[in-house]
Amino acid sequence: MYGEQSLEIEDRLLAHLKIAITSKLRVGESFLLNVQIPAAKGSGRMSLWMSPSIPIHYRFGGSKPPELNRRWLEALSRSSQGIRGMVAMTEDEAATYLGQAGPATAP
Known about the structure:
alpha+beta
């Protein structure tokens, strides 16, 4: 749940989004989050403005936290710095994204 908006996101992706989103909100950064809506839910995409001032709630279907993939977290974080904002991507899409984005630049 984000404000009044409810999204259904698979647990493993949600666990990675939770870490990536929380790390940005923790330091007061606002950003755009882009999520694909699956065909079973009507298709399309949704963009949400993520801000520390808007309540966010994560609810997982499973009882055990999934193993986290640091490269996937890096891809989510790096995508948030682009003009499109953070893109909710699969683990495979994250690997492709990082391969195309090249090495991270120092701040």
